[in-house]
User: What shape does this take?
Amino acid sequence: MAVDQTNLSYEHPLYATMDKMPGITVATTTVDMLLTWGLKNSLWTFAMATSCCGIEFMHANGNRTDLDQMGSVPRPSPRHADVMVMAGTITVKMAPRILRLWEQMPEPKWCIAMGSCAISGDFYRDMYSVVPGIDTMIPVDVYIPGCPPNGDDLMAGLKRLQEKVEAQRAGRWVEPEGRPETAKAILPALGRVIDRDGTQTERQLRACQSMGLDGNEHRQSDLVAKSAGLLSNLLKLKGR
Amino acid sequence: MDATLREALAARFPAVDLDQDVLLVPAADHYPLAALLKEQGYTLYVTVAASHHPGPEGDAFEVATVLRRPVRGAPSVAWRVVLGADPHLQSLYPLFPGADLQEREQLDLVGVRFDGHPNPVRLMLSEDWVGHPLRKDYAPNMPHAPWR
Amino acid sequence: MDPIFQPFRDDPHYPLDRYEAAADLMLLNMGPQHPSTHGVFRLKLVLDGEIIVKAVPYMGYLHRGVEKMVEGLTFAQMTPIFNKHDYVSPMTNEQAYAVAVETALGIEVPRRARYIRTILAEIQRIASHLLWLSTFTLDMGGVIGGGAAMMMYNFREREDIFDLFEAVTGSRFHYNTHCIGGQRHDLPEGWVQRVRAFLDRQERAFDEYLRLIRNDIFDLRTKGVGVMSADLALGLGITGPNLRASGVDFDMRRDAPFHAYDEVEVRVAVAQGCDAYARYEVRMAEMRESVRILRLLLDQLPEGPICGSKPVKMANAVRVPDGRGYTAIEGPRGEIGTWLIGGGEDKGAKPFRLKIRPPSLHAMAAMSYLLPGHTVSDVVVVLGSLDPIMGEVDR
Ligand code: SF4
Assistant: This one.
């Protein structure tokens, strides 16, 4: 559900008035620092756990590497969470649902790709039913390689995300993370979301809308029609 | 294979060579054999596995079924049925309810139809998927727009 | 239970419109992303008020095409793949594969390797049942309701087990420690003592668990819920603890011994209750039994080589000739079988067809038989008591 960006206004009219008040900058900066501190230390996670990495994610939230100490409480519902931890293999049948869950998360939201399956599809990436990496559908903020990455790696990844959140709140430019070295050698079948224009994601979103409750999954014929443009794009990418 | 079962099988299916590890059974005997084995105490439905064997004179399919007796020694009987280019076989669902999902999976992945199955739709892939992945002529890295 | 639901319990394909209040039914979709479905599993429930009339399972959300993939891999490349179907008991899955190829080729495994396999399999069984226990209680109590306490206790022991496995194989899970004809890694120095210490801790922990979960609420929520008769269980192909909880005294470890199980006495836990509580009882008893078997095995552990006289070193060295066969071993969830047709590409270096028989897929088939007549809150109890792993269901 792409939002029409033109009609949105991010500026509240109160801001203009507040800007003229003496000493207000000090107060807002302080409040802002407080908010940043709160946000970065309470990154609640939504475990999009499809397979083995989900078990390791449970362990990371268990008693040895207790992720709760970083303020990251696992939440079962996407609507409670700030960070989606994509842990596990993504299949074609599951992909529309993952997109929908991502859409259901409130802004601001971040995505962690945990494990090589979520990064590039691991050794399943060439199979007919596997999506080669979550970053072909959703922009990823932090990549945590491993099969599965253990709790310490996950902790380091969360730390990186916290730094990123802090920098973003302060308005600093953050270099987007690239796919880790091990996965770089493989040209993804689809380009990463952040590397391409928005059209493809929109198509994917529309595809995800066309799935019914009763029917089994999305209608492929619709999809083929809708994704003609995407396919040509894909061929271009492959030829690159 | 114990003596009583061997006798019963030899009496009922004289054409089947009982010395093989995996019996080769004509398609018409598939269901009667399963019924007989169930009577003989082979009540544990173990598995069904279909496979695609392309050859110079057209496609052939093979459906193997395994049943087991849940007693000491765990004796099992496995048999296979060879089918032609349009593979279909009697479903074992009336005898073994477990055949429901198992046969659906084989229908989905290999494309063998099971006659008399109560709900013959795909199990693993979405219902409108084209092709059967475990056939030898299906490319493993088949694209599926827009996801892969 | 109301007899009106009986036809749906007997036949999940019984037409809905024959139900008397068919017009008032409600459809509830559960999953594929649901915290209690143990992965990506979808269940369509048809409800009359709070009572389930019909339950339809949908799966395939984790279908990774493994059976197609292995047709393009040599036998030596395949072991790491087999870890990943059932990610809660990777060790036994690997063993099922190794046993299948060894049986096809007639390879004799050295005695020490067989012992190591048995030891690893039994430790894995404890780990797997521990995860089952924590998720089962988690589902019933909810994270906020205090169910997470049990998980913390279980994971304490599971971390110990991961450490033990890491010491042997170098990986927390996904071990890749079995090769065709033996083991890749021998037990490190002092490992046996560590296991013994762990077993002592584990034995004390069982009493702790009991103090945590034995209460009236637990009994009320599990007794009489999800009753599965022995006939139904056999017809569905359910094996392992779920079958033994239905009163069938059958365990491949004792009845068709593989590895080194013929050299130890396995006391099979059987319960007659057929319900979720019986399945809980069987799994708890099995964990204690595993501790006992492990002590015996550690006492008898022989010295010697861990790989066959002809270690399989080259990736393409293993060739399975044309032929077919079914082999099975008993994993924590039941019979893990392999239907192998040899003589594939490259003169048999790759399998022609390899079907994995997943015990969980058979267990999932039981859902539509067990649920009609129960309330919505019992869904997670029945599902949890069957202990499915979706990776194995979908492969
Ligand atoms: S990266 Fe490895 S552990 Fe994680 S989901 Fe993929 S196969 Fe499983």
Notes: Chain A has two domains: 2-37, 44-189. Chain A touches chain C at residues 48-52, 54-56, 58-59, 62-64, 74, 76, 88-89, 91, 93-94, 97-98, 101, 123-124, 127-130, 147-148, 150, 213-214, 216 (CB under 8 Å). Residues 2-37 of chain A form one domain.
